[in-house]
Design goal:
single chain, alpha+beta, Translation Initiation Factor IF3, 2 helices, 33% strand, TusA-like, TusA-like_sf, UPF0033 domain-containing protein
Amino acid sequence: MKQDLLDLRYERCPMALLLVKRYTKEMNSGQKAMIYVSGRDSFSDIKRFLLQQSFQLCCKEVDGYYRIQVIKGTLSNV
């Protein structure tokens, strides 16, 4: 299964959140993706949104940005 990358390190909320919403809407159940964000506010908003949509998350802070590995669940509303 291919893992995609969405690099939003140069985007701020609300644009970063909007781009995540658009991106995840196109994902299939079980599909994996990696999302990079730099701002703490963007990270918090995106994480909250993904958890509400039944995504599985693995988050890590690396070299001044956040790396969020996501897997789309079967119960997602996106």
